[in-house]
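Exercise 7. Predict the joint structure of the components listed below.
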Amino acid sequence: MNTRIISNTKVFSWKHFFLQWEWMLVGLLVIIFMMNSSISPYFLNYTGISDATMTFLDKAFIVFPMVMIMIMREIDISVGSTVALSSVVMASLYNAGVPMIAAMGACLLVGALCGFFNGYLLVKYRTLSAVIVTLSTMILYRGIAYMILEDQSAGGFPTWFSFLGWGYVGPVPFILILFIIFAIGAVLLLQKTTFGRRVYAIGSNPVASRYSGIKVDRMKLIVFTLAGLMAAITAIFLTSRMGSTRPNVANMYELDVIAMVALGGISTAGGKGKMLGAILAVFVIGYLQYGLGLINIPAQVLLIVIGVLLIASVTVTNLRGKGKFQKKKSRKSVQKAS
Amino acid sequence: MSEYVLELEGITKEFPGVKALDNVHFKLKSGEIHALMGENGAGKSTFIKVITGVHSATSGEIYLNGEQVVFHNPKDAHKMGIAAIYQHVTNYPDLNITENIFLGHEKINKWTRRIKWKEMHAEAKALLESLGSDLDPKTEMGSLSVAKQQIVEIAKALSSNAKIIIMDEPTAALTHRESEELYKITEALRDEGVAIIFISHRFEDMYRLADCVTVLRDSQYIGTWDVDQISNEDLIVAMVGREIKQLFPEKSNELKEEVLRLEGLGQMGRFKDISLSLRKGEILGITGLVGAGRSELCQALFGIEPYDEGKVYFEGKKREIKTPADAIHLGIGYLPEDRQEQSLILQWEISQNISLSALDKISKNGWLHLQKERQLAKELAEKVDVKTKSIFNPASSLSGGNQQKVSVAKLLTTDLKVLIFDEPTKGVDIGAKSAIYQIIVDLAASGYGIIMISSEMPEVIGLSDRIAVMCEGRITKFFDKGQATQEAILEAAMSKKVTKSKVG
Amino acid sequence: MTEKNLLKHINLANISKFREFGLLGFIVLLAIVFQILNPAFLTFGNLADLTKNTAILSILALGMMLVLITRGIDLSIGATLALSGMIAALTVREFPGLSPLLAILIGIVVGVICGVVLGFLVSKVGILPIIASLGLMNAYRGLTYWISGREWVSAYQMPASFKDIATSSILGINTLVFIAIMIFLFFYYFVNNTITGRQIYALGSNPDSAKISGINSHKVYMLVYTMMGGLSGLAGVLWVSKFASAQGNTASGYELTVIAACILGGVSINGGIGKVTGVLLGAVLLGVLDNGLPLIDVSPFWQMGIEGAIILIAVLFNTIVKQTVEKSHRLRRVI
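Solution:
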């Protein structure tokens, strides 16, 4: 009795394709490269650029889970402290005679536990917001790191350990290879799997997601645990590059990470944005910092740049969201009238 | 000077594409309780919003004490002495009673701008006492029961010297005794010369309180009668206005074996002692007044807020349902009452909405298979006849009825055996309604066991094989098809006595 | 378990009182423990030191309370404090003859500007407070380093009149403490006895209803963030005067301590709830811990961990109590 035929072939639209936020980031990246290389002849030097890449890639691993967390309308500001705690645990264990591999395993475990604890509190006490939970654990985790090492530093790692942070595989930095592998995995996970679809569903409408049989609590636990785990990976690379660690490492990493995610086009209202955008944003911010460093702009100005960049990109994402919504509304009313 | 404090002449209100009010008249005397009745979606709420200045009418005039007035916003109406008490109380839970009463017109010292707490507390106390309440005005609003909050809302209306008070379903969430107290207060106000517009679904409320009644139906004015001059039957005809049978498709399928049985299901403070059974191919209607615990029961059955006593048997086996995922896995689907909030992701494509609860079906080892998704979405969207050109249109582009069809299509993606429909035609226009009825009957015929919650009695009577009526958290009566009349259902919906023999 | 059963019978209104007495009791208990372990705790000198340290914290915590009541948060206050302290310090270095009152005024103005920017971003642009203040935290911190050229302003570069702000006294009370008391009294009056003060609570309690009641939410948001900024500016000058040095990393991370004081004092991060007396007690508790722990030979490096654990426990305690109370409300309904 139903005669209506509904189309299920997607029409490809060039306009839609080019209107994506990611192109803006690609454009930004090109502009930064052009400006940097015109200002400083040293910028395009291969060793320089690959060294620079190593320095900003460590924290970029946290970007992957943070994208998911922010798409799910949550936030995690304890990641910097998690980096510090897992790094300190690893170094202390090694100094206490534990084999390096085991110490690294403990580092990953501690990171994952930190993340899991955040997720657990959020799920167990639904009225708590992620802001307050991760704010509390941010103090707690770093506090524990201080309890362990006090004002000491720990280091003296085996030489092979420094390979992780400094090593090259052929002409390519090891960390870059690993980052690319993770990035491909993260893009596929978020964009092509049921897991990713559920993340977007929860961020777009948590209630409807629950009513549709999505295990929202379990998803939250998973992404927060992932955030902790990635913070531990960051800790390994950071420690490897520095050769030693202190309780105050990775201070304010959460800000850098959140800035990268926001610049990547992930809306703080949840449900919107792509993994690729955030990955591009990692390089935009990284090379911007590197370029500014090359022309002797003091590191402290970089703080201002990141802060302003964060606010500007959130503002733009907010405005974009509003525009789209209005369009849809008017379409709705037209449909109703007809 | 007119004898009416409030007169509305030929009020029409149009929203894009919809006429929410069509040439409505209304007259209100001082010292009168005037009931406003009509089915869901008849236009009562819009009408109230025109009177309180939330909406401005497209055409028509409003007269206050014989003089024409125009309200640009709620504040204008408020200044003229019109106050409304809404069904969902709009208050400040963290502030105390006095503040809630005086918010917006606090008493302050002229020179120091200091809030005069003592005076305000005293006046609040006096107001509450005049309403027969001994509440301490320093108590926090959030710690009060809904009934007490409503008394505070009335005090708030009085504190601004309201001459016209509108009560929108004030008894919906109240118990009988609480309602009785509210009636007394309302009558006392009437005797002091306040004019009251009382909106309620409960006939009981109307007979108990009102002097006259105005009925709206399908956005139109039907008529005004003195309460003692109109019989129950006539009133129902006025409200429903159509032969019930015509709208509903014939349901003639055979009922098969039992699929779901509940024994003594209960949840603290929400419902208790619920026992019922459901057969394949059967439509079990659950009705009752708002707040009777119908939705809560079904949400518990779907694992939203788990039940804490009693047993659930599914296909003969005892099962536990703790989360919606459990329920879906078992084969129970739920069509929520608020589709925009609880079912759909409006900004998403229709196809993605349809596949949301069946992601495992359109994927392999966790990888999404888009082709499969599109095929599934197309099939189901065509099956329920969604009026759209492409499954890639956002759900927000659809009308209410078609959004509801998408919600139904969502349920058909998984292998379910029991479907729970919570107010399936709420906010849906007449045309789409019968389409949804047809879908429900077809689903029953194809072997689903269906539980349908509805406040619309014709719907329940017209579709159900059996009807369970709930009142204050318990099932008070079961009706078989053909036995049920609106009057009998209403009586059961308001009765306190549980027919033990039937509940078993 | 017995405690839980007991809580069922306490309603929301009683709990805030219960909490304040509990907090006070805890402070007294803590003081007794410290005193037993180290008799130097309850000496005049130490207590004077304690109150001076708590003064700045409580000034900031009162401002933060208003922000939290509107369901916001301000992470930029540490940076705002540093920036205004630095600007005031640089000014007195250049003009040693400047009146200390003027120096304080400069600090407040700088803080107000910082707060206005944040208020604008939150109320007009609609950025989440946590994101906006996180961004500004960086920007203000960077600005502090930039204008100071990464140099410190040290004690010898400051005129005595400026350093005297922290050491002088008014009516026999140390100036810092005096200012904190004045601000406390002002806040007490403001939030309890003015319409604007109550509007802050109303907005946080139910933002949707606030619109219907005709509360201008933009104005209220602007006001609370501006006040927070102004107080941070004031605290900046007091801080620099007290420690006699202005650095780029002054008060880095201090925002967390301030938020902690509020949470301990019973301010709800979900808005609508918070009392000035509670916040003051929260600040005092942290002040006592800060002061007492070193006295009983707890390593200074343990303080952050202890503080973190206490905050987490306070947060969880708040939530559990609230959930229990809500559940008991539901249980009361008999069917």
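Discussion. Residues 497-504 of chain B have pLDDT under 50 and may be disordered.
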